[in-house]
Known about the structure:
Chain A is an alpha+beta fold.
Amino acid sequence: MSVELRQHIEKITPLTDEEFAYILSHFKTKKLRKHQFLIQEGDHVHNDHWVQKGLLKAYHTDEDGKERILQFAMEDWWITDYQAYFNEGNASIYIDCIEDAELLVLSLENREKLCNEIHGIANFFRRKSNFGFIALQQRILLLLNKNPQERYERLLQLSPQLLKRLPKTLLASYLGVSRETLSRLSQF
Amino acid sequence: MSVELRQHIEKITPLTDEEFAYILSHFKTKKLRKHQFLIQEGDHVHNDHWVQKGLLKAYHTDEDGKERILQFAMEDWWITDYQAYFNEGNASIYIDCIEDAELLVLSLENREKLCNEIHGIANFFRRKSNFGFIALQQRILLLLNKNPQERYERLLQLSPQLLKRLPKTLLASYLGVSRETLSRLSQF
Lengths: 188, 188
C-alpha cells in the first residue's frame, strides 16, 4: 500500500521496508469529494496532508468575498494551513477540493515523533521544506511580475501538468488576470 | 563571540558550549558596505547568510529594469537566493545592502555536514525553514490582497521594526503601491 508515498520519500532519503512500514503507520487516510472542505477558516489545524489522488486549492477570502488563491496541490504535493499547523493554531485560510481527493494525513505530533526517531525522515522534511520555500519564492516573483504574458509562460514552464488540469477560472484567479485576458494569453 | 547567533539557535534548540563552538567554526564572517552586492544575478551561490548587523534586500529585476522586492533581511534573519543555494545553481536574483552589514556565512556543504552530525541543528534548520515558509505565505497573502490600506496595516502588524527602518521608496515598492499612496496610508 502507498507505493507512491514511499517513492515520494525515497526521492530524498532511502528507507528500509521496516522504516517505511513504521512511518506509514503514523499516517491516516482521508477521502473527500469535489467541493468538500479540508480546512475552513477558524478550524484548529492538527494535520498536514499528502495528496495521493486529486486536486485541491488553498485560498483566502477577502472582505469583499473574493477568493485569493494561495496554492494548489495535486498528486505528490503536501497541503495544509502551515501557519496554523506549525503554530498549533487556527486556520486563516480555506482548503477545498477541485477534484475528488484521497489524502494521507500526518499530525504534527506524529511528524515530530518520526523526525526525532528517524534521522532520514527529519532530513526528508527539512529538504521538502526548503523546496517548498523555493516554490513560494517563485510564486512571489510570479505575482510581482507585472506582465501577464510572462506570468502565464512562467507558470507553464514551472507546472505544465497543473496548468492543463485547472479550470480556467481558477487559473485566471491564480495568475491575477481576467478570464478574457487568460483566453488571449493561452489562445484557447 | 556571536552571543546573538547562539541565542538565535537556542530559541529553537538547546546547545552545549562545545556544540556551539563547533557549529560556529563552520561559519565565516563577511562585511559589506551600504549599496554593495552580496549576490548578483548569474553568480554561483554557495552560501546562506545570517544577518548579525545591517539591512539587506533581495530583488528581481524585470526586463524594464524595475526592481521587484522579494524579501528584506535585518538582524537575526537569514538571506540568500535559496533556489540557487539548495540546487547548487546560479542566482536569479540580486541581494544588496540597504545599510552596512555584518554577516555570518554558512556554505551548503557545512550546513549538511552539521545537520548530519548534530541532531539539534538539523532540527533547528527544519523548523527555521517551516517558519520561513509561513513568512512567505504571509507575503503572498499580502500581495494578493488588493486593498493597499490593508496591505500596509498587515505589514505594520507583522514587522513593525522593519517598517520603521525601511526607506519609504523601498517600502512602497515592497507593498506594490506608489510613493504618494504610501504617504497617504501611513500619514507621514
